[in-house]
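If you are new to this repository, start here. Below is one unmodified record pulled from the training split, so you can see the exact layout before writing a loader.
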Amino acid sequence: MAVEFKLPDLGENVESADVLDVLVKPGDRVEKEQPVLEAETEKATMEIPSSVAGVVKEVNVSKGDTIKVGQLVLTLDEAEGDGKAEAPKKEEPKQEEKPAEPEKKAEKQEKPAEEPTRPTPTDVSPDAPQTTVASAPPPAPKGDRLPIAAAPSTRQFAREIGVDIHEVEGTEAGGRISIEDVKNHARSRAASGGGGAATGPRSTREPMSKVRKVTARHMAKAWATIPHVTIHDKADVTDIERMRQRFKKKAEQAGGKLTITAIFVKVVASALRSFPSVNASIDVESSEIEYKNFYNIGVAVDTPRGLVVPVIRDADEKSVFEIARELTEISGKARDGKLTLEDMSGGTFTITNLGSIGTGFFTPIVNHPEVGILGMGRALQEPVFKDGQFVPRLLAPLSLSFDHRLVDGADGARFLRWIVDAAENPLLMSFEN
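And here is the target side for that same chain:
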């Protein structure tokens, strides 16, 4: 009996997705929950699992298609999936081969050692394909390729640099392919003369991904509609860095990586409780201000697909170790392209840290409908006059952008100073809350 698999509901307000790769082909056996598509929505890249089992009869979508929720993706034969239709298929080739088997046996007696070990491109006789397909799978045509184990972000990276993911040898557990495997394959190909910049075109064009489209549209709207004000300050994070080094092993034992970003998530969540106007949003149509009584901190993460902002929920109620563990997990999901819409929704304030790249002060754009965003730059040792002498201190540049329609300059300055004071005196958070 033929069954259909249609694109399922992908989440709130998601009506379509771009097909990045089709992971099955006609004749493949598909089990329930087996990934059959790699697709990209406006928020995330994901593998779409099949809700039915069977043997693929027809693939109704192609790579590059934009498909809508409820659109037909695959037609499968459910009977074949249960194994009921396997017997007839196996009998047909046996009936065709029987007349030829005595001749083959005679040939093998004459050359017992050569036939199985010499599948070369010159084997073009009618009998040759059955020998060469079984003993030499690498030359198989693209349509017969088996599914490969690689994260969506790895597949995307391979496409971007022009590497066929099926040609890459995976070094991780179970032969899984990593981004580093793709890079090594590209390097070896270039070293062997398989590629080079000199032979390529002077410029290339490619369609924007859904993530890039949404980012471009969202940033343009935020910049055009929000009157931005950005103020800068420096925080002495010498003591925080000393504590981070002291407790980072304990955080690793708890399953997280204790970064300065994780610490500032806690600091900012505490600051927002004292400044409700920064933890709010504006409803222009109703001329109302919505003050949020929850504190969900979005953290910008750089991925091969572009910038995404997963959210740490109720950060004010979590310890720094809990935040570190959750931030480590959600950042990994972001880089692997496995974030869900829920992972990236509901933020009330955003932090973006460019310190690892070496950036100092900058002007981050407010993530609408939020009204504030904190940019962190690279902390550097600087001389600070303290107790009658100059001493080396680790200073981190901070940049706060806010929506001037709701947050006045004085309030924005007080909010940033609260963050600076809390970073320099962590006990302040305990007394304030």
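Two things worth knowing about this chain: Residues 81-144 have pLDDT under 50 and may be disordered. The chain has twelve helices and 19 strands.
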